[in-house]
Amino acid sequence: MKKLVLALLSAALIFGATARLAAADAAPKTVIHVVTVAFKEGTTPEQIQAALDGARNLTKTYPGIRRVWIKTLKVQNPRGTEVPRTHVIAMEFASEKALAEYADSDAQKKWYETYVPIRAQSSSFDVTN
To answer: Where are the domains of the chain?
Structure first.
């Protein structure tokens, strides 16, 4: 009986620790930066791809960016949107500090050389836990 109680108590402790770890993973402290983009009229698919590739490569040039997503699956444009957004770029920053320090960084400036000249409009959203 003593062994059974000890085994059940051990299992409960392990389960509790595992649940806490899973909960911690469900609420990461990274920051997701989402940008919806409308490109200028006349922008070529090659120019757009170069801008998207530049965004994806930010993980190599700015250590505060962990992941970048560039494959747009869906964009919702509100009624009356003058210039519809067609693409989404999402970046995962290691922290709020990493996002703040990204502004005007050399990595951002380099990417902007390709991106800004073809961008008509964009909106960005930042979210964390």
So the answer is: 29-127
Distances (CA, A) of 15 to 12, 18, 22, 80, 84: 5, 5, 10, 52, 49
CB within 8 A of 125, min separation 6: which ones?
33, 34, 35
Contact 107, 58 (CB under 8 A): yes
Residue-wise pLDDT for 8-24, tens only, equals 455 555 666 555 655 56
**Are residues 94 and 64 in contact, defined by beta-carbon separation less than 8 angstroms?**
yes
Topology adopted by domain 29-127: Alpha-Beta Plaits (3.30.70)
Whether the pTM exceeds 0.85: the reply is no
